[in-house]
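Entries read sequence, tokenised fold; example below:

***
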Amino acid sequence: GISVVRPLGAFYVLVNISQLGLTSTNFADKLISKAQVAVVPGIAFGDDRTIRFSYATSLDVIKKGLDRFEEFCRAL
């Protein structure tokens, strides 16, 4: 139920979470508290339907974070 806006040369990706029924701030707050994954609410960039992930880290850290993100979304 989510979609991604492909990055064009940046080190972050926007994920559309509108299908999950939470504002970007509520989603980000719940994600950090329940899954220990930090994202930036899209409202900070003018789009409350998205969250922003940074991928300026190792592939191992990215995989762990995405696994936690997936588990969190499935539990919603």
